[in-house]
């Protein structure tokens, strides 16, 4: 039993070419569908990184504020320093000298 190959000629070659082109077209179509998703994913990753950096900065600020608050609650010297700096308080017999910012050359608004 000998197999005979049937030569379909140009139709066999055309069928293969159409299948290859069809597979290529599907691959390109999938690529076009995925590109926006990949770009969106990259933007979201960048935003996530920015937010994580902001969270770290805010946590550090929170730690500093907590340390300041704890010092003000428990350290009398910190309370005294705060009263002197912010409120201009002085001990009896001390003189408080306040300095003003230098005037700018800005024209006053009428």
Structure description:
The chain has 110 residues and is mostly helical. It starts with 9 loop residues before the first helix and ends in a 23-residue tail after the last helix. Helix 1 (10-74) crosses helix 2 (76-87). It is 70% helix and 0% strand. The model has no long low-confidence stretch (mean pLDDT 85). The relative contact order is 0.03. It has one domain.
SSE blueprint:
Elements (H helix, E strand, L loop, with lengths): L9 H65 L1 H12 L23
Helix pairs in contact: 1-2
The level of helicity is over 70%
Question: Could you give the distance between the termini?
Answer: 112 Å
Strand content: under 5%
Biggest β-sheet, characterized? Answer: none
Shape summary:
rod-shaped
What integer is the average pLDDT? 85
Q: Taking Cα atoms only, what radius of gyration do you get, to the nearest Å? A: 38 Å
Total individual domains: 1
Query: What structural class results from the helix and strand content?
Result: mainly alpha
What ranges have pLDDT less than 50 throughout 5 or more consecutive residues? none
Secondary-structure element sequence? HH
């Amino acid at each position: 039993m000998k197999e005979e190959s049937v030569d379909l000629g140009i139709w066999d070659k055309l069928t293969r070419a159409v299948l290859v082109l069809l597979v290529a077209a599907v691959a390109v179509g999938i690529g076009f569908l995925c590109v926006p998703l990949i770009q969106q994913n990259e933007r979201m990753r960048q935003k996530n990184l920015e937010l994580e950096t902001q969270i770290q900065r805010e946590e550090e600020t929170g730690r500093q504020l907590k340390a300041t608050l704890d010092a003000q609650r428990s350290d009398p010297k910190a309370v005294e320093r705060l009263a002197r700096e912010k409120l201009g308080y002085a001990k009896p017999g001390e003189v408080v000298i306040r300095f003003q910012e230098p005037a700018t050359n800005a024209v006053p608004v009428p």
